């Protein structure tokens, strides 16, 4: 689950409700082999329903700010 905190997750056997999913067909070719699979995305792990309940706010990974300046001297 993208953007989920490392301490949160779902386990085998959990009932998972996915409101407003975006389903994408992925097709990749690598070294002569074809890999095809469906991907399901939601806007946030907080939008899921796990075992009839919404995840707590702590299920969302904290934001990280990454800066780069390629023209800065090393």
TrEMBL record:
InterPro entries, A to Z: TTC5_OB, TTC5_OB_sf
Domain Tetratricopeptide repeat protein 5 OB fold per the UniProt entry, residue ranges: 1-61
Pfam families given in the database record: TTC5_OB (PF16669)
UniProt-recorded name of the protein: TTC5 protein
Species whose genome carries this gene: Hylia prasina (green hylia)
Lineage: Eukaryota, Metazoa, Chordata, Craniata, Vertebrata
């Amino acid at each position: 689950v993208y953007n989920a905190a490392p301490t949160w997750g779902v386990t085998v056997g959990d009932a998972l409700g996915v409101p407003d999913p975006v389903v994408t067909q992925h097709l990749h070719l690598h070294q002569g082999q074809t890999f095809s699979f469906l991907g399901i995305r939601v806007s946030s792990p907080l939008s899921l329903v796990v075992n009839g309940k919404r995840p707590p706010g702590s299920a969302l990974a904290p934001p990280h700010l990454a800066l780069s300046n390629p023209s800065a001297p090393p």
